[in-house]
Amino acid sequence: MTDATLVADPAPSLQTGGRPTDGRTTDGRTGGGLALRGLTKFLGGRDVVAGIDLDVAKGELVSLLGPSGCGKTTTLRMVAGFLPVDGGTVTMGGADVTDLGPERRPSAMVFQNYALWPHMTVTQNVAFPLRTRRVSKQRTAERVREALELVGLTHHAGSKPTAISGGEQQRVALARAIVQEPDVLLLDEPLSNLDAKLRVSVRDEIRRIQQRLGITTVIVTHDQDEALSVSDRIAVMHDGRIEQVASPTDLYARPATRFVASFIGATSFVRGAFLADVRTPIADGDEVLVRPEEVTLVPDSTVTATVTRVLMRGHFAEVVLAAGDAELRSFVTGAPPVIGSTTGVRLGSVLVYRDGALVEGPR
Fold this sequence. Notes:
The chain is α+β, with helices and mostly antiparallel strands and about 375 residues long. A six-stranded mixed sheet has the order 6-7-8-3-9-10, with helices on both faces. The protein has a five-stranded antiparallel sheet with strand order 13-17-14-15-16, with no helix packed on it. Strand 4 (about 85-90) and strand 5 form a beta hairpin. It contains eight helices and 19 strands. Helices cover about 25% and strands about 30% of the residues.
């Protein structure tokens, strides 16, 4: 299995900029961004992808974020050309590539399992897509060297994939993709096989390389921390549809739907005694949610609650509070309160949803 993209020889180095290939127009190093219009896929008797629209600007990194089965990987595979679309169009750099195979698209994909050849060295793995397209040996050697330098793996050029770590294997797969100088880089759950600490360092490395190359990038992930930390914008998917596309800051502060609010960050329902502290007019049937950082513990308040649990999160504690059958969570720095103690509670900004849509949030 190999990454697929459109590569022609002669080609410039990774550092010097791109050129038109196969009739595409380019401006700068790449041919522009990515546009999806009405993209649809019908599998197993249902719409796995139900007519989504998405624009990714040139040089932008957008994450497709959502739970398992929401259609994000299916979307990515249609963008890459590995799955035919049942409806809609895929445009890269202003050119319609909907009916082109993956080898004819100006894109490269990093697979979840990396798909490295175990019998080949790191250099041979990275060079493979260039060799299959008959790029000259000299240019292949130059571009492979630059790609390995970019991902910090020059010292493993002669190693086999089985002799390097999971994080290094992931960087080999990334080098094999960027050596092709694609207009669009596609990554399918690129960090899912790594341990928690390694995921943080590798995701930072991916973002550094993406920004240095200025390459249009789409990452599929179910990890909200990963999406929030590396993305210019995030598209949250649910049941084959995009619920909201926004910057990480806007997405967290003003989630447009009840689903987005529950999927991005932690929230608690505000009900019972806690509603007395809500200043927004509430209609029958409205759902009121609050983020833990908007829940403050104070010595005196008209609303009190009992501390039922204290969960240490490193430099802060997550305190679980109960008043009757209602429960809130609060992030507390410094010494946390004692379990079983009673404390006053004050709410800051809340999120109010009516029929699943945001009607009131932070201003």
